């Protein structure tokens, strides 16, 4: 209806929150709804508690992936990452503020009445959850109730659990493979102890200097004497203290730090000014100073089981609001398992994909969560660019997608399975084919995928004889030295030792002469029928009189006694003249 003659035409105003144009008479009620919606959304997207303050929090891990689909060239740059992922042109600020759960639920924004509707899809909510902090960091549990697995050390009746519950924290060394939850456990202890009035300070052995240790100690002393507050010091990657600091290594020095640091440090662990929690992926018996080790309780964490990984992934699925599709289920049918209402979620993930991810990440939760994040991110990005109107409705993340996600975020490498054998075979063949680039590539694929360096080193020792042999006898020395080097210093420092050896082998001349000849001998033995020929008497040793009487050693010509080459048979009579070095027909 046209406004009545003379009536004042109502002005349009822009909502300062969602930037929507609407009649000025509606602005107040709209604003209330909009702010409410924004608050609700912030709560829902940040449903996982934020970590405690920087001082008290165990350091965040260097994420093993940036929060953008790889290959987008947007890694680490949130704005570009968002663009690469096909996010709407609206900035995060605008999108966030326009989203709410009023009315029909999360798919519907706080839409102004009267002039169209601003519908923000749950896909947008999802996109925001996928960007910024890596999923693994966002989902790092703050309490034991979200900490999955490791029952052997944290079960209901375990000593550690009762110590944690009674806030009695002893000095600990947390030893376990990557991504099994060492830092997370320290994080939980940090939260616990803060509630109990303790300080929690973090140092990373990769970046801390001696002065940092001294500062921590003197602060801890002050806190104890002035406020009776104890300090827990978390040292991540404790095994790296010596190596990254490039200090002179003396086996008896605490942490291999200069002596003035150890002089101040150890007594304070002992008298309780500082409670030490160290995390390491390396065997502490070799990597942590014995004096310190004897004052700490070593907690051995294991690779997370497939079931534990599934639980961690399901928590991520719920956080992202994905729907899980059982076998044979289609996106349109009612999906189960994610715990979110089907009307809310437009992105699906196959149950099989989750199982595969749980299996392939080899007990490393960070790898699993990164893989999930990348797979979903990539699917959402593709879905948005191909779908009409950029909607993400009906996107399904399949097993293939998570495998791809894993391959990009980490290295798809199944240490226990086929990939382990495929990669070592590819390495062996590349060195044999003298392709130094391919050799290095396969080596890196394995090591970056978490392969045991000693497994590779053992193969190199074998290769030195099998494929290089007497063409360069030094190759064997190289390989054995590489094996010992790996054994002594472990990963990641030993990677370059293996790389050097692998390149040496790729470039070395090759000879299978010995390998083939030995194979011929084995074949000869296998093919023999009847009793094996006796050792010729003249080759036998005769340590007793009886043996001498039996003719042992009789007629043996002791070579050093002869100036000229000696005519003598060394093979059994029936093999006289056999030549194992002759090439056999393959
Ligand atoms: N037991 C667990 N329960 C739940 N989530 C876990 C668990 N372990 C690891 N995670 C998840 O994996 C991420 C990485 O774990 P965390 O940093 O604790 O591993 P870590 O053992 O310290 O690894 P690294 O040796 O590589 O530093 C965490 O942010 C968390 O999201």
UniProtKB/TrEMBL annotation:
Its principal location? cytoplasm
Q: Where is this region: Disordered?
A: 39-85
Keywords in alphabetical order, please.
Acetylation, ATP-binding, Cytoplasm, DNA damage, DNA repair, DNA replication, Hydrolase, Immunity, Innate immunity, Isopeptide bond, Metal-binding, Nucleotide-binding, Nucleus, Phosphoprotein, Ubl conjugation, Zinc, Zinc-finger
Q: Does Acyltransferase appear among the keywords?
A: no
- Low complexity composition bias: which ranges? 44-57
Q: Where is the UBZ4-type domain?
A: 12-39
Q: Where are stretches of biased composition, namely Basic and acidic residues? A: 74-83
Q: What is this protein called?
A: ATPase WRNIP1
Q: Which organism is it from?
A: Chloebia gouldiae
